[in-house]
Amino acid sequence: QVQLVESGGDLVQPGGSLSLSCAASGSIVSIGAMGWYRQAPGKQRELVARITKISSTDYADSVKGRFTISRDNAKNMAYLQMNSLKPEDTAVYYCNARIDRRGGSVYEDYWGQGTQVTVSS
Known about the structure:
The chain is an all-beta fold and about 120 residues long. The protein has strands at about 1-5, 10, 20-25, 30-40, 45-50, 55-60, 65-70, 75-80, 90-100, 105-110, 115-120.
């Protein structure tokens, strides 16, 4: 069993910044990629950013240049620094972690409970 807990969501004005954290715990042998996804009301969940075990990153076009994903492998944590926030960034943000098993030949995806980010107008 693996648990992910996000924190840091808040209400912020357009142009402001927030930093989200994701802590993984439980039966972890090796965490592969970690990612941040978001889901706005009435919309599908979408990838915001992801980061591999060796810190290669990928971002949605809508957040490039504004958001930065990072991780601390020793602490089993991931972070999302969000700058220049826009109203369209308003969503519930979810942390995802891919847990590798059997030397990386098998993986399982886990999700956090989500944290609300609201960018007011």
